[in-house]
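chain below, 290 aa
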Amino acid sequence: MSVKILTDSACDLPKDLIEEYDIDVIPLVVIDDDKEYLDNVSIKPKVLYDNMRGGQVYKTAQVPLKVFENKFEDIANKGESVIYISFSSGLSATYQASIIAKNSIKEKYPNFDIDIVDSKSASLGFGLLVYKAARMAKEGKNKDEILSMLEFYIRNIEHIFTVDDIEYLFRGGRVSRTQAFVGGLLNIKPILDVSVEGKLQPLEKLRGKSKVLKRMLEIMDDRAKEADLNAQTIGISHGDNLDNALRLKKMIEEKYGCIDFIINEIGCAIGAHSGPGTIALFFLDKNYED
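prediction:
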Protein backbone atom coordinates (compact mmCIF):
# COMPACT_ATOMS: atom_id res chain seq x y z
CA MET A 1 0.00 0.00 0.00
CA SER A 2 1.31 3.45 -0.87
CA VAL A 3 1.94 5.92 1.95
CA LYS A 4 0.18 9.29 2.03
CA ILE A 5 2.22 12.23 3.36
CA LEU A 6 0.26 14.80 5.35
CA THR A 7 1.76 17.94 6.89
CA ASP A 8 0.96 21.52 7.88
CA SER A 9 1.73 24.89 6.38
CA ALA A 10 4.69 25.69 8.66
CA CYS A 11 6.82 23.46 6.39
CA ASP A 12 7.05 26.36 3.88
CA LEU A 13 7.52 24.09 0.86
CA PRO A 14 7.03 25.64 -2.60
CA LYS A 15 3.69 25.00 -4.26
CA ASP A 16 5.25 23.15 -7.21
CA LEU A 17 6.84 20.53 -4.93
CA ILE A 18 3.62 20.12 -2.94
CA GLU A 19 1.77 19.40 -6.18
CA GLU A 20 4.49 17.23 -7.75
CA TYR A 21 4.69 14.93 -4.74
CA ASP A 22 0.98 15.03 -3.84
CA ILE A 23 1.61 16.37 -0.33
CA ASP A 24 -1.53 17.17 1.66
CA VAL A 25 -1.03 20.43 3.61
CA ILE A 26 -3.25 21.62 6.48
CA PRO A 27 -3.02 25.39 7.06
CA LEU A 28 -2.27 26.94 10.44
CA VAL A 29 -4.34 29.89 11.62
CA VAL A 30 -3.17 33.52 11.44
CA ILE A 31 -5.03 36.19 13.42
CA ASP A 32 -5.23 39.90 12.60
CA ASP A 33 -7.02 41.66 15.48
CA ASP A 34 -10.20 39.55 15.68
CA LYS A 35 -10.15 38.19 12.12
CA GLU A 36 -8.81 34.72 11.37
CA TYR A 37 -7.05 33.62 8.19
CA LEU A 38 -5.70 30.33 6.89
CA ASP A 39 -1.97 30.42 6.27
CA ASN A 40 -1.20 30.76 2.55
CA VAL A 41 -4.88 30.23 1.70
CA SER A 42 -6.82 33.32 2.74
CA ILE A 43 -3.70 35.37 3.54
CA LYS A 44 -0.47 35.33 1.54
CA PRO A 45 3.03 36.10 2.84
CA LYS A 46 3.52 39.28 0.78
CA VAL A 47 0.37 40.81 2.26
CA LEU A 48 1.40 39.82 5.78
CA TYR A 49 4.92 41.26 5.44
CA ASP A 50 3.73 44.52 3.91
CA ASN A 51 1.22 44.92 6.73
CA MET A 52 3.85 44.11 9.37
CA ARG A 53 6.11 46.81 7.94
CA GLY A 54 3.17 49.16 8.44
CA GLY A 55 2.89 48.21 12.11
CA GLN A 56 0.27 45.44 12.01
CA VAL A 57 0.78 42.77 14.68
CA TYR A 58 -0.32 39.22 13.90
CA LYS A 59 -0.86 36.24 16.15
CA THR A 60 -1.04 32.59 15.19
CA ALA A 61 -2.92 29.53 16.37
CA GLN A 62 -2.56 25.78 16.03
CA VAL A 63 -4.49 23.72 13.54
CA PRO A 64 -7.88 23.30 15.25
CA LEU A 65 -8.69 19.90 16.70
CA LYS A 66 -11.85 19.60 14.58
CA VAL A 67 -9.84 20.15 11.38
CA PHE A 68 -7.59 17.23 12.31
CA GLU A 69 -10.56 15.03 13.22
CA ASN A 70 -12.26 15.72 9.89
CA LYS A 71 -9.06 15.14 7.90
CA PHE A 72 -8.17 11.94 9.74
CA GLU A 73 -11.70 10.55 9.42
CA ASP A 74 -11.65 11.21 5.67
CA ILE A 75 -8.36 9.32 5.32
CA ALA A 76 -9.58 6.50 7.56
CA ASN A 77 -12.72 6.13 5.42
CA LYS A 78 -10.54 5.71 2.35
CA GLY A 79 -8.44 3.04 4.07
CA GLU A 80 -5.20 4.92 3.31
CA SER A 81 -1.90 4.57 5.15
CA VAL A 82 -0.68 8.00 6.29
CA ILE A 83 2.24 9.73 7.98
CA TYR A 84 1.45 13.15 9.42
CA ILE A 85 4.62 15.22 9.88
CA SER A 86 3.97 18.08 12.30
CA PHE A 87 5.41 21.52 13.01
CA SER A 88 7.71 21.37 16.06
CA SER A 89 5.93 20.71 19.34
CA GLY A 90 8.38 23.19 20.88
CA LEU A 91 6.88 26.02 18.83
CA SER A 92 3.20 25.10 18.43
CA ALA A 93 0.47 23.01 20.04
CA THR A 94 -0.41 21.60 16.62
CA TYR A 95 1.38 18.30 17.29
CA GLN A 96 -0.53 17.77 20.55
CA ALA A 97 -3.84 18.50 18.80
CA SER A 98 -3.04 15.89 16.13
CA ILE A 99 -2.37 13.25 18.81
CA ILE A 100 -5.72 13.95 20.48
CA ALA A 101 -7.48 13.74 17.10
CA LYS A 102 -5.71 10.49 16.23
CA ASN A 103 -6.80 8.85 19.48
CA SER A 104 -10.37 10.05 18.96
CA ILE A 105 -10.60 8.74 15.38
CA LYS A 106 -9.00 5.39 16.25
CA GLU A 107 -11.85 4.74 18.68
CA LYS A 108 -14.18 4.75 15.67
CA TYR A 109 -11.66 3.30 13.17
CA PRO A 110 -9.37 0.99 15.20
CA ASN A 111 -7.52 -0.11 12.04
CA PHE A 112 -6.70 3.45 10.98
CA ASP A 113 -3.08 3.24 9.79
CA ILE A 114 -1.51 6.53 10.89
CA ASP A 115 1.85 7.59 12.30
CA ILE A 116 2.38 11.08 13.67
CA VAL A 117 5.90 12.51 13.67
CA ASP A 118 6.99 15.60 15.60
CA SER A 119 9.47 17.24 13.21
CA LYS A 120 11.03 19.34 16.00
CA SER A 121 11.76 21.67 13.08
CA ALA A 122 10.41 24.79 11.40
CA SER A 123 10.12 26.38 7.96
CA LEU A 124 12.25 24.62 5.33
CA GLY A 125 14.09 22.66 8.03
CA PHE A 126 10.71 21.03 8.55
CA GLY A 127 10.05 21.19 4.81
CA LEU A 128 13.14 19.16 3.94
CA LEU A 129 11.81 16.32 6.11
CA VAL A 130 8.44 16.45 4.35
CA TYR A 131 10.04 16.69 0.90
CA LYS A 132 12.28 13.67 1.48
CA ALA A 133 9.36 11.64 2.90
CA ALA A 134 7.15 12.51 -0.07
CA ARG A 135 9.90 11.56 -2.54
CA MET A 136 10.37 8.21 -0.81
CA ALA A 137 6.61 7.61 -0.80
CA LYS A 138 6.44 8.34 -4.53
CA GLU A 139 9.32 5.90 -5.09
CA GLY A 140 7.30 3.20 -3.35
CA LYS A 141 9.27 3.03 -0.10
CA ASN A 142 7.38 1.47 2.79
CA LYS A 143 6.35 3.27 5.95
CA ASP A 144 9.14 1.86 8.11
CA GLU A 145 11.77 3.09 5.64
CA ILE A 146 10.24 6.57 5.61
CA LEU A 147 9.96 6.72 9.40
CA SER A 148 13.59 5.65 9.76
CA MET A 149 14.68 8.45 7.44
CA LEU A 150 12.60 10.98 9.37
CA GLU A 151 14.22 9.93 12.63
CA PHE A 152 17.66 10.57 11.08
CA TYR A 153 16.66 13.96 9.66
CA ILE A 154 15.17 15.13 12.96
CA ARG A 155 18.43 14.29 14.75
CA ASN A 156 20.66 15.91 12.15
CA ILE A 157 18.84 18.84 10.54
CA GLU A 158 20.42 22.23 11.21
CA HIS A 159 18.59 25.57 11.36
CA ILE A 160 20.52 28.85 11.19
CA PHE A 161 18.57 32.06 10.78
CA THR A 162 18.57 35.78 11.37
CA VAL A 163 15.86 38.40 11.59
CA ASP A 164 16.04 41.88 10.11
CA ASP A 165 14.40 43.63 13.04
CA ILE A 166 14.62 42.28 16.59
CA GLU A 167 11.32 44.06 17.34
CA TYR A 168 9.45 41.22 15.64
CA LEU A 169 10.97 38.69 18.04
CA PHE A 170 9.77 40.83 20.93
CA ARG A 171 6.24 40.88 19.52
CA GLY A 172 6.38 37.09 19.27
CA GLY A 173 7.59 36.80 22.87
CA ARG A 174 11.11 35.62 21.94
CA VAL A 175 13.05 38.53 23.48
CA SER A 176 12.35 41.09 26.20
CA ARG A 177 11.27 44.69 25.59
CA THR A 178 14.69 45.89 26.81
CA GLN A 179 16.54 43.51 24.45
CA ALA A 180 14.43 44.68 21.54
CA PHE A 181 14.98 48.37 22.36
CA VAL A 182 18.75 48.03 22.79
CA GLY A 183 19.01 45.75 19.76
CA GLY A 184 17.21 48.26 17.57
CA LEU A 185 19.27 51.13 18.92
CA LEU A 186 22.57 49.36 18.23
CA ASN A 187 21.45 47.75 14.96
CA ILE A 188 21.91 44.27 16.46
CA LYS A 189 21.24 41.33 14.13
CA PRO A 190 20.75 38.12 16.12
CA ILE A 191 21.62 34.68 14.78
CA LEU A 192 19.42 31.90 16.14
CA ASP A 193 18.87 28.19 15.67
CA VAL A 194 16.47 25.45 16.77
CA SER A 195 17.42 23.17 19.66
CA VAL A 196 17.14 19.37 19.69
CA GLU A 197 13.85 19.87 21.58
CA GLY A 198 12.54 21.94 18.66
CA LYS A 199 12.66 25.33 20.40
CA LEU A 200 14.21 28.60 19.24
CA GLN A 201 17.46 29.57 20.89
CA PRO A 202 19.84 32.50 20.34
CA LEU A 203 23.38 31.83 19.14
CA GLU A 204 25.09 35.16 18.54
CA LYS A 205 24.51 38.87 18.11
CA LEU A 206 26.19 40.90 15.36
CA ARG A 207 26.30 44.62 14.64
CA GLY A 208 24.92 45.47 11.18
CA LYS A 209 23.70 43.46 8.20
CA SER A 210 26.96 43.11 6.31
CA LYS A 211 28.46 40.43 8.57
CA VAL A 212 25.41 38.22 8.99
CA LEU A 213 25.45 36.06 5.84
CA LYS A 214 29.20 35.50 6.11
CA ARG A 215 28.80 34.42 9.73
CA MET A 216 25.92 32.07 8.83
CA LEU A 217 28.22 30.42 6.28
CA GLU A 218 30.95 30.06 8.90
CA ILE A 219 28.52 28.35 11.27
CA MET A 220 27.41 26.06 8.44
CA ASP A 221 31.04 25.16 7.80
CA ASP A 222 31.63 24.34 11.46
CA ARG A 223 28.50 22.22 11.84
CA ALA A 224 28.84 20.30 8.57
CA LYS A 225 32.38 18.96 9.06
CA GLU A 226 31.08 15.37 8.80
CA ALA A 227 28.79 16.13 5.86
CA ASP A 228 29.13 16.26 2.09
CA LEU A 229 27.10 19.40 1.48
CA ASN A 230 27.24 19.26 -2.32
CA ALA A 231 25.38 15.93 -2.17
CA GLN A 232 22.51 17.46 -0.16
CA THR A 233 19.41 19.50 -0.84
CA ILE A 234 20.03 22.84 0.88
CA GLY A 235 17.05 24.85 2.10
CA ILE A 236 16.92 28.65 2.19
CA SER A 237 13.77 30.49 3.25
CA HIS A 238 13.21 34.22 3.53
CA GLY A 239 10.73 36.83 4.69
CA ASP A 240 10.18 38.83 1.48
CA ASN A 241 13.97 39.03 1.11
CA LEU A 242 14.76 37.10 -2.07
CA ASP A 243 17.86 39.14 -2.93
CA ASN A 244 19.66 38.09 0.25
CA ALA A 245 18.41 34.51 -0.13
CA LEU A 246 19.98 34.37 -3.60
CA ARG A 247 23.13 36.03 -2.27
CA LEU A 248 23.45 33.31 0.38
CA LYS A 249 22.81 30.64 -2.25
CA LYS A 250 25.65 32.01 -4.39
CA MET A 251 28.03 32.01 -1.41
CA ILE A 252 27.19 28.36 -0.70
CA GLU A 253 27.59 27.40 -4.37
CA GLU A 254 31.01 29.03 -4.54
CA LYS A 255 32.26 27.51 -1.29
CA TYR A 256 30.85 23.97 -1.53
CA GLY A 257 29.78 23.43 -5.13
CA CYS A 258 26.19 22.74 -4.07
CA ILE A 259 23.69 22.52 -6.92
CA ASP A 260 20.46 21.34 -5.27
CA PHE A 261 18.54 24.07 -3.43
CA ILE A 262 14.98 24.70 -2.30
CA ILE A 263 14.36 28.43 -1.90
CA ASN A 264 11.00 29.72 -0.78
CA GLU A 265 9.30 32.53 1.10
CA ILE A 266 8.57 31.95 4.77
CA GLY A 267 4.83 31.45 5.18
CA CYS A 268 2.50 33.48 7.35
CA ALA A 269 2.47 31.14 10.36
CA ILE A 270 6.20 31.57 10.98
CA GLY A 271 6.59 34.97 9.31
CA ALA A 272 4.09 36.48 11.76
CA HIS A 273 6.77 35.97 14.45
CA SER A 274 10.04 36.34 12.52
CA GLY A 275 8.99 39.30 10.37
CA PRO A 276 10.03 40.63 6.98
CA GLY A 277 13.71 40.43 6.09
CA THR A 278 14.35 37.09 7.78
CA ILE A 279 16.89 34.74 6.20
CA ALA A 280 17.06 31.06 7.21
CA LEU A 281 19.43 28.27 6.18
CA PHE A 282 18.86 24.51 6.53
CA PHE A 283 21.12 21.50 5.95
CA LEU A 284 22.15 18.17 7.46
CA ASP A 285 25.23 17.87 9.66
CA LYS A 286 25.62 14.31 8.34
CA ASN A 287 24.46 12.91 5.03
CA TYR A 288 21.62 10.42 4.97
CA GLU A 289 22.42 7.14 3.25
CA ASP A 290 19.41 5.48 1.63
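Confidence is low (pLDDT under 50) at residues 174-186. The chain has two domains: 3-27+63-155, 157-284.
thats it, cya
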